[in-house]
Request: fold
Amino acid sequence: MGRKASLLFLVLVLLFSFWTVNASDDSSLVSTATAEGRLIVFDDVWETILERYYDPTFQGIDWQAKRAAFRPAAARAANTHEFYEVLRQMIASLKDAHTRVYSPDEKFDWWSPRFVTVGLTVREVQGAPTVIHIEPGSAAAKSEIQPGDVIAGIDNVPVADFIAQRMRSTGPADRFRTVATLFDGAAGTTVKVSWTTRNGKQKSVILQRYWSQRQLGFNNQRKGKIAVLRIDAFTQSVALDFSKMLPEVLQDAEGIILDLRGNGGGDAEAMADVASLFLDDGTNLGKFADRSGASFELQTFSKRLWRIPGLLPTKLPLVVLTSENTSSAAEILAAALQMKRRAHVIGTETCGCVLAIRNRHPLPDGGVLDVSEFDYRTAGGVRLEGAGVKPDNIIVLTRADIYSRHDRTLERAKDLLN
Reply:
């Protein structure tokens, strides 16, 4: 394995989970309570991106000008939360979902991503920010808001104005993330949420932001002779457990639905391990390259991971489900299966967020910076960043689907296999 194995310690970041790392108790850490400390951290972030970013042209952005524009605001920040918001606004100008910064009080656990929420998950559906999930047991679940309802306002600001204001610093390319993070803010603070019901009525509620944690893994179920497999993310443990259970799950099955609609990425090597269950050994999964030209290829190699007697790639008919949430390593898998004509891909276009980090950079105050150091192209030379994977059949989610809890994409996949 040698050089290739060392390079594969990179992680394709889980995009829409607010990752964090354990803050150190080291008394030598810089304090962002002072302007001097904030500038030390700011300069470290800016310089690290300058030195390590995969694109030396910074996607056409004048990175020197960004330092001049945001450094005074960093010095004036009233607290750590405000300071990190300044950093995030500067980084957002790169329009790169993988390059991210995390403050010291955000705890990182890859297996259980931790994030601040009000109990609502919002995506743009039919051109409007729409509730697609409500956290069970949350204050939001006890309110009258329902999946399918449209967000109308935030803190008495019309949602269209609120989104436009946010996007002045991020640009139109980041609309998906802007809508997904409408309720961002510090844990313990409150936000007034106004919404429009299915019947057109206007309602509102005040919700408190709180920390929540999500368990990553996989789920499987049978729909007659069809095995429905959902993978939340790619980690070494998920890949290993997934491979062990697959022979039993596929017993007497006549087709497979691989649901990647909620998969935000993960470990590139773990993704290759999962790909080895569906593709022949030695299949090229694409190439990563950094700004110096150094590169490496991902390949399937089932024997390296599993040592399970008799475990071979399955040849059963396969349909892959994708959405705007399908990101990073999940996009690579979907693209490879599609390009090899191993699977029929249905749903909506994927995120188009396929860069990679090599190592997480510790900041002087105990925070952490992720920097995209690798670009990616498929085995056919196609760049997925900013483009995503286009399904063979596009099925767009509607609010009527959400209200009726009708999964048309899954139903279409079953029809194809039957």
Remarks:
- The CA atoms of residues 106 and 121 lie 20 Å apart.
- The chain has three domains: 2-102, 114-213, 218-361+373-417.
